[in-house]
Amino acid sequence: MTLVLRYAARSDRGLVRSSNQDSVYAGPRLLALADGMGGHAAGEVASKVVIASLAPLDDDDPSDDLLAQLREAVQNGNAAIAELVQQDPDLDGMGTTLTAVLFAGSRMGVVHVGDSRAYLMRGGQFSQITRDDSFVNELLEQGRITPEEAAVHPQRSLLLKALTGHEVEPSLTVREARAGDRYLICSDGLSGMVSDETLSEAIQIPDPQACADRMIELALKGGGTDNVTVIIADVVDVDFGEDAPIVGGAAGDGSDEFHQGDSPAARARALTQPAPQPRPEVQPQQEDPKVKRRRRFRWLAGAVVVLIVLAAAAIATRYFVLSQYYVGEGPGEEVVIYRGVPGSILGIDLHAYEQGSCPPGGLCTDKLLVPALQEDARIAVKNGVKKDNLDDARKYIDDFLRPHKQLADCKPATGSTSIPPSESAPPASSSAAPPSTPASPSSANQPAGRDCSTPEPAAPGGGN
């Protein structure tokens, strides 16, 4: 059996954007898509540089370690972005997502950073095989919002991971390739405009090029508010597959002006070459100063509007985060209360220390430590137990966690009468004489406290 790829790719700037910052590459072994961000010019630069770093992988000599090849190529692309920013500080803030597949016979290596997506149609089942590195997806996975709320959330474009020149760890997986598989790789200009149900219908169009065209059409009908890029690739069992690479989007600008040759290296060089500028036949007329002033005024007005929108988004995000509380593990393994939500965005924590396990201002000689909890309560606290307000978080510690320590924090039963777990034994006097009979081995290591003979009720598993 000889498995090869039959593919098609298409990119469109959409109905709103003035330029296309997506870059795409589709070849016999490599399928790669990058969605640039960071301004009119910087986004397309970042996506183009990263695609150029991956293009040499599209050769005829696959390595046994697909993930090592992908990781090295991504690191090279990320380093190239950092070098460009160092040379031109105006490019600071640019970045790109990346979703790429490296094909080698019966195996597919997948690398992913950001919110571009890869889907797989196999045996009539359509499913997403990448995970969005976004703030809204974190909320969705934690059950804090519904899929319907996620679709219209004001922060749905906020990424937790992207290639910006800073250190980042991409997601890397290896998948089995089977004859009959169909892969869809797309930017969020498609997935954000078209539902998964509609995509699962459109992807069944047999011809890859017709299928890609239909995907673009659906995105434009849905609003076309972003650049939209699509790769459709079929795994087929034939002797020979396609061998002509497709380079599109920002990476395809002017590429047809140059001789690319047959080698992946030549194709990679063509990706980063600037498009030739035509020589004007006539001298352009001097621009009217009034027109120039009006253009400058419109630009300033637009910049002010953008700043206002960004400020409003930042305020909304801050309000949402600071209105949340959760019980988690703090310094020294202490059970503490945090204000905010678990996790971080681009290295910035979304939470801050609020209180320890003891109420502030009160006398506390016994801090509650995570290792002292029963297993289910310990796991819940380590994962973070969400609460609506500070009072609920404090009650959770005092009313649930403290009474449900593990059995090691108890005393052995004496005589034939057991003490109910709800009643605390009186503290032993420091001047009391030691018992005349030695403690049994089973209780020798247990400190004075609750009666060990009574089973402990299970701690709640972190429910709200």
Automatic annotation (TrEMBL):
Residues 249-290, 409-464 are annotated as: Disordered. Residues 416-444 have a biased composition (Low complexity). The keyword Ribonucleoprotein does not apply. It comes from the Bacteria. SUPFAM superfamilies: PP2C-like. InterPro entries: PP2C (IPR015655), PPM-type-like_dom_sf (IPR036457), PPM-type_phosphatase-like_dom (IPR001932). Residues 6-235 form the PPM-type phosphatase domain. The keyword Membrane applies. Keywords: Membrane, Transmembrane, Transmembrane helix. The chain crosses the membrane at residues 299-321. This is Protein phosphatase. It comes from Amycolatopsis azurea DSM 43854. The lineage of its organism: Bacteria, Bacillati, Actinomycetota, Actinomycetes, Pseudonocardiales.
